[in-house]
Design goal:
Radius of gyration: 17 Å
Structural class: alpha/beta
Strand order of the largest sheet: 2-1-3-4-5
Number of helices: 4
Distance between the termini: 32 Å
Strand content: 15-25%
Mean pLDDT: 95
Length: about 160
């Protein structure tokens, strides 16, 4: 009788891999962020990436980071976490986990809390200690959302399509 494989990926590697794959759908030329929401039973419930809302052409709206708000992406882009929450059509997200490639901003933190997401696993925290990042962490902690930095294993996961 054969033994089972021992080199399979962990749940965290799997779901963070899905978040990174989702980020690859983003058309943002500067920042690509992906998110994956998972049930307590390790079932994928929803995914999202940063981009413009449905019906807003990514050829017509600005991708610029500089300039006034009206002519920059910041007034229009929906973040991956919010897209994942809004894409879910199955009812409550109470008690779920959110895997995201970049630590959520304060606006997404509000949506995460309101959706009832219980745990946040993030890969990067490049805005650590900025006022918006500190506000996000303060709200998430106050609401009891567990936050965990994803620890890279060094394993290479390659896709051939």
């Amino acid at each position: 009788m054969s033994e089972k494989r021992t080199d399979y990926i962990t749940w965290d590697e799997y779901f963070m891999g899905i978040a990174y794959l989702s980020a690859m759908r983003s058309k943002d030329p500067n920042t690509q962020v992906g998110a994956c929401i998972v049930s307590q039973e390790n079932k994928i419930l929803s995914m999202g990436y940063n981009g413009f809302p449905k019906g807003c052409s990514d050829d017509e709206f600005p991708w610029d980071r500089d300039g006034d708000t009206y002519n920059s992406k910041y007034a229009y882009v929906t973040h991956s976490e919010l897209n994942a929450i809004l894409n879910y059509r199955g009812g409550s997200l109470e008690g779920t986990k959110l895997y995201v490639t970049l630590f959520p901003c304060n606006e997404c933190a509000k949506a995460i809390i309101q959706a009832g997401i219980a745990e946040l696993i993030y890969a990067d925290d490049k805005y650590d200690k900025t006022p918006a990042n500190l506000a996000s962490k303060r709200m998430l902690a106050a609401a009891g959302v567990q936050m965990k930095c994803y620890r890279k294993t060094g394993r290479t996961i390659r896709l051939s399509v």
